[in-house]
Amino acid sequence: MKRLVSLCLAVLLLAGATCARADAAVREIYDVDGLRAMANDPAGHYRLMNDIDMGGVDWTPIAFSGELDGGGHCLYNLTVTKPGPDTRVTRDGNKKEYDTTLAGLFSALENASVHDLRLTGAYVNVENDTHCFAALLAGYVNQSVVSAVSVQGRVRMTSHGVMVGVGGLAGFGFGSFDRCDAKIELVFEDQNFDFRCEEFMGGVLACGIAEINACMIDIDGYASCHGYVHNGGLVGMSYHCGTKNTGKPVTNNIIEGRIRFFEDNPDRRAYCEATIGEPLTKPSKTGSNHAAFKSDETKKYDVVLLPEQCAEPSYEETVVPPEGQRWGYTMHRCGGCGYLWTDTYTPPAP
Ligand SMILES: [Zn+2]
């Protein structure tokens, strides 16, 4: 064994290669088909080898339990319009269980590791007739580690369900988020007037328990809710949800932005805070979290809260080409209210 190690070291020194390269178990991903193939072996170990344009792809969220090394690369122009085929059990503050659909790049991350990945110009837009969590990276997380993942984009939910939420990185569950950043617009529109929904919104995680360290969140949130709101710059509601999970550290994070919301409910609680909206389970440690965050409540319940302010918006499109190391994109700006969003990202010239 010693000789083998010496030999490996010698080869390393000679070739300047790494032992990891010889690891045949790591599957290399070069394109959309390679990404889709993760669904066939969701416990596998994968590595992105280049940036991938997801534009024009009707993406089906994947339930994943392996390792995805993004290699610092970018999946750009991802669009998700429906939850994945599988569901998971979620639990509200009273431990009531809901069979829940899940939308994001991944539907679920379970015992998974995702790291060194970027999502740029991502758009998750679902209209759900049942319980649902949607986020850019994953609708559901369980005992998973997300590190050095950067997401930029929009999540919209038009909801007819009861247990429902939108997150920047993840929707419901238990995970660790280290050195991640999210620049996100989150919009939740409650269309269920028969039952009071449980709504959750968070820049990192909508509902559950997360260890969150050194993340940077820039959030622009809108929640129109005829039930109960739980909104936070980092986590909407921190709660063990009837599981054995305990509070985790929430430290060294920077939160900017605001959540504009209403809670049309005579039993109004209106949880909305810069870090954790409703801390039913407190973090084991908090410290050095810096926030420039506005909880922006309105009690006008008849107008759905949207970033776009005009009843009849008129958009002007500007194509910004890539320049040097900077990505290009298309900018859509309303001449009436100035609301703008970007899509159709184009990579810098190689
Ligand atoms: Zn407008």
Q: Quick one: CATH class of the largest domain?
A: Mainly Beta
Q: Tell me the helix content.
A: under 10%
For the secondary structure, the number of strands is 29
- What percentage of amino acids are in beta strands? over 45%
**Radius of gyration over all CA atoms, rounded:** 21 Å
Task: State the major sheet.
Answer: 19 strands, parallel
Number of helices: 2
- Taken together, the total number of domains comes to 2
CATH topology of the largest domain: Pectate Lyase C-like
- Gross morphology is globular
Mean pLDDT: 94
Say which molecules are bound, naming each kind only once.
zinc ion
The CATH architecture designation of the largest domain is 3 Solenoid
Which class of secondary structure composition applies to the elements? Answer: mainly beta
Give the termini distance in whole angstroms. Answer: 43 Å
Low-confidence stretches: 4-22
